[in-house]
Write a structure and sequence with these properties.
Strand order of the largest sheet: 9-10-8-7-13-14-15
Shape: elongated
Number of helices: 11
Number of strands: 16
CATH architecture of the largest domain: 3-Layer(aba) Sandwich
CATH class of the largest domain: Alpha Beta
Mean pLDDT: 91
Order of helices and strands: EHEHEHEHEHEEHEHEEEEHEHEHEHE
Oligomer: single chain
Radius of gyration: 20 Å
Structural class: alpha/beta
Largest sheet: 7 strands, parallel
Strand content: 15-25%
CATH superfamily of the largest domain: Methylesterase CheB, C-terminal domain
CATH topology of the largest domain: Rossmann fold
Number of domains: 2
Length: 345
């Protein structure tokens, strides 16, 4: 198999050397260029022709966020952001994801001292998966000429969304297309590396008109966009209030899209809506099928707009027949009529 070609954009020579050693261990990946600045990385793209770019956020000169935007608008390639910061202050990584980077990892979570170890193998697997992803230039909804979707006038009390690789960029477009006063609560599971959920949520809250925050257990779902916190399953309880489960194991993910959407199916019935967005694996498929089985609306992102079609395809394979581009999903959501939680079964 032809080795995956990687360009490293990293201003620390020591870190870049260690990263290169881990990536090239085993021979399935070859580093075709190491660039200390974003300007050099952009200039090197035509000759190096990488399958994946690893991008530091904090760089001398042009920053990583601007570099991601330029690359995705001129010569799109899958980009993995390596951030030196995790926790609340990760707005830069979130902005890079919204600009088109596909994934983010904290540098502190990478063990570069043991290329043969499990952490190194996991990083190489991640790079290989990203090398096969579809890269998207722009996902800005164009609602002026887009019809209101397949079910205009359908009543809904709550919308559940789940996404993985490629999700932040799509979520920015979807949420940004909705008015600040959009009345139907949106609950979101976004698979992302530990330490980056809070930064993504804060960045989105500043970037769109709707309120965006971390879901609060015990609160009734209010208008706005509410993300599952790291390490906990977000659910909609029979009481109509939000709940959090940090103990149940349900597949590979916690939070799990399946857990969220299955709870919406049970609590909201025909007034529930499930949206499965770009991502690898099959999380959300069973939950979307559960919403559909209760008479609710289930939607999957279409293949041409998905960076990774795994999650939407799995939902389609389980019977989700409404398959739309992001701009048409946004139009569909705008066509929904708010229903009091629990009012439609």
């Amino acid at each position: 198999m032809t080795p995956v070609r990687v360009l490293i954009c990293e201003d620390s020579g020591t870190y870049a050397t260690a990263l290169r050693r881990v990536l090239e261990h085993g021979g399935d990946i070859t580093v075709v260029a190491v660039c200390p600045t974003a300007e050099e990385a952009i200039s090197a793209l035509p000759v190096a022709a990488p399958d994946v770019v690893t991008m530091d956020v904090a760089l001398p000169g042009m920053g990583g966020i601007e570099a991601v935007g330029q690359i995705m608008s001129s010569r799109p390639v899958p980009i993995l952001v390596l951030s030196g910061q995790a926790g609340p202050g990760t707005g830069g990584a979130a902005a890079a994801l919204a600009a088109g980077a596909l994934d983010v990892l904290a540098k502190d979570d990478l063990d570069l001292l043991d290329p043969a170890g499990l952490a190194g193998a996991a990083l190489r697997h991640r790079i290989t998966v990203l090398s096969r992803a579809r890269v998207i230039r722009h996902l800005s909804p164009r609602l002026g000429s887009t019809p209101a979707g397949p079910v205009p006038g359908r009543r809904a009390s709550v919308i559940g969304m789940c996404a993985s690789v490629g999700g932040p960029q799509v979520l920015l477009g979807l949420i940004g297309a909705l008015p600040a006063g959009y009345p139907i609560p949106i609950l979101v599971v976004q698979h992302i590396a530990a330490g980056f959920t809070e930064g993504l949520v804060h960045w989105l809250d500043q970037a769109v008109g709707m309120p965006v925050g971390i879901a609060v257990p015990g609160a009734p779902p209010a208008a706005g966009v509410w993300f599952a916190p790291e390490g906990g399953h977000l659910t909609l309880a029979a009481s109509g209030r939000l709940a959090l489960d940090r103990h149940t194991v349900a597949g590979r993910h916690r939070p799990s899209g399946d857990v969220l959407l299955t709870s919406i199916a049970a609590a909201a019935g025909r007034a529930g809506v499930a949206v499965v967005l770009s991502g690898m694996g099959n999380d959300g498929a069973a939950g979307a099928a559960a919403v559909l089985g209760q008479g609710g609306l289930a939607v999957a992102q279409d293949e041409p707009s998905s960076a990774v079609f795994g999650m939407p395809k799995s939902a389609i394979d389980l019977g989700v027949a409404v398959v739309l581009s992001p701009e048409k999903i946004a139009a569909c959501l705008l066509g929904l009529v708010p229903e009091t939680a629990g009012g439609t079964r």
